[in-house]
Amino acid sequence: MSLKNLTDVSYFRLNNEINRPVNGQIPLHKDREALKAFFHENVLPNTKSFATISDKIAYLLEHDYLEEAFIQAYRPEFIEELAQALKNENFRFKSFMAAYKFYQQYALKTNDGHYYLESIEDRVLFNALYFADGNEELARDLAMEMINQRYQPATPSFLNAGRSRRGELVSCFLIQVTDDMNAIGRSINSALQLSRIGGGVGISLSNLREAGAPIKGFAGAASGVVPVMKLFEDSFSYSNQLGQRQGAGVVYLDVFHPDILNFLSTKKENADEKIRVKTLSLGITVPDKFYELARNNEDMYLFSPYSIEREYGVPFSYIDISSKYDELVANPNITKTKIKARDLETEISKLQQESGYPYIINVDTANRTSPIDGKIIMSNLCSEILQVQTPSQINDAQEFVKLGTDISCNLGSTNVLNMMTSPDFGRSIRTMTRALTFVTDASSIEAVPTIKNGNDQAHTIGLGAMGLHSYFAQHHMTYGSPESIEFTSIYFMLMNYWTLVESNNIARERGKTFVNFDKSTYADGSYFDKYITGQFVPQSDLVKELFAGHFIPQAEDWINLRQAVMAHGLYHQNRLAVAPNGSISYINDCSASIHPITQRIEERQEKKIGKIYYPANGLSTDTIPYYTSAYDMDMRQVIDVYAAATEHVDQGLSMTLFMRSEIPMGIYEWKTETKQTTRDLSILRHYAFNKGIKSIYYIRTFTDDGEEVGSNQCESCVI
């Protein structure tokens, strides 16, 4: 028997029996039976065995499954010792879904697909050896963090580390387009290259002149952003990793761009096929001024990027619309059109109801809270990456006259459940920071010079979290309660503190900081003011108890850290970001990201298998009351939890809002009917803005027929 001809297996049937209550009880033991059967019927008989780890590595090297360089960086006896240490941890998957996802998507298989070549201990071993880059102590620490599931690298890193035939280790990319044909052509090539490598690609189109704008030297007029969107969509469809996955991209447009209504129309169900985009995601950047105009029910002016760049000498994205709004309105040299702000707000809400789009980037909030000199102008395919960029200038030979900076993201997540039992929270975070640093140092995307330039200058990483709702439920905290909000704040404060400590350590060791560190609020020390004067320590008895035994930095610790950072700098321009997660959270047996679960027994549709059921971690009679579905929650509770984390996160958090098409009465005090309306979404967006939320990912709507509108496409962040 091999993986290609498995017959008469029982684990899918056993797993499906979870969804059939017996005497009113969920038969959770059936999932454990499915897990046992999966190993007995699938994994054990179809795993190629070796006498020792050295024999296995020799085989993998000989048959070109592993790179040789990272293995040769270690003593053979150390590798054997570390492999044994991993085995001694006695790791066990806790659910059928976790084991199934690992062996289907992450475990190395023979070229013919007949046999497994890796266990999870092997994948962890190769990750640890690869990311530690010859440092035995770091390799040991990293292996323990991963096998105890305190740390989970993002899919591209975890899947590809050490493999000789692999994709990139980074998760996603962000590029901007400036207002000329050379930049458009170069950006399409960049999208092709980046989609081929893997990961989602975010593209800002805000700088492009609007439809009808003049073109110098030609009698005709510009066609606007929609035809360019179609070009990008076709590029992603073509560059799809040999058909293994759909290329994934998102395009961003500023809400004050004259083409904003046409931009939104491309996702409408009744859109003309000439303009409709089916696979491209949409996002909008929203300055503070839009919220003010909508709140006051005023007219709003849309400003021509063409005339703004002529007048101010910089691309549209780099103008502060909120501060210059009145000046732009009064300037006769700026071409502008007038619409009602609330009409546009309603159009945004209608589209979110219909499709889940557009993502919302509160761009002024992101810039106001950023410690980095420069301008954030966009985000990525999952809305959690928020970093400064600079524009390029390209001549007719497609050469860079001025090389700007774009963004690549390498991500990883802490598992809240297991981090809270870490013997040393700080050492765990510092170890993870080192692993992510290797990824950013090893990344060199030569095909897209702006990406390479941005990475070389910024050394950014994105450490996040998953399993927050699982932790709340197991400690009898209601999601969105004051204690849960306080816990979230302290947890992310600790992540912030320890990544700062380690980034400072790396800068001191290497004598190197990120470019323009001296212009940041880290350099002048003002970044640390709120931590020195504020009270970011546990206040309630419950949260004090939960963090008992963990080091909590006091004002004196922040003062010492400020002095160290001002003296030696930071290596990483950005350190924290919370991705949405997905299958990678199943492997970790926890709830995805920091949002609430959607189902106590989650139903997943697998392509060729059918349905697989996943019970929430620790689901029991004891925890059921705390495992409320996101669809049955007041979304302000979710926003409050995300706001507590946001205060400590230097980038963004991928926050999805979960709505029902028929909202039960009593959840929202303004509701007089059950039907979801555009007003509901507008109120929640304004609430999020007022709470300091930087971005909103999908709006997912659960409809009467059991369907979900608004689904996830970014495999690199989600899986």
Automatic annotation (TrEMBL):
GO BP, sorted A to Z: deoxyribonucleotide biosynthetic process
Catalytic activity from the UniProt record: a 2'-deoxyribonucleoside 5'-diphosphate + [thioredoxin]-disulfide + H2O = a ribonucleoside 5'-diphosphate + [thioredoxin]-dithiol
PROSITE patterns: RIBORED_LARGE (PS00089)
Cellular component per GO, a single term: ribonucleoside-diphosphate reductase complex
EC number: 1.17.4.1
Example GO molecular function: ribonucleoside-diphosphate reductase activity, thioredoxin disulfide as acceptor
Pfam families, per database record: Ribonuc_red_lgC, Ribonuc_red_lgN, RNR_N
Domain Ribonucleotide reductase large subunit residues, every copy: 558-580
Keywords per UniProt: Allosteric enzyme, ATP-binding, Deoxyribonucleotide synthesis, Disulfide bond, Nucleotide-binding, Oxidoreductase
Family: Belongs to the ribonucleoside diphosphate reductase large chain family.
Function as written in the Swiss-Prot or TrEMBL entry: Provides the precursors necessary for DNA synthesis. Catalyzes the biosynthesis of deoxyribonucleotides from the corresponding ribonucleotides.
Name listed for the protein in its UniProt record: Ribonucleoside-diphosphate reductase
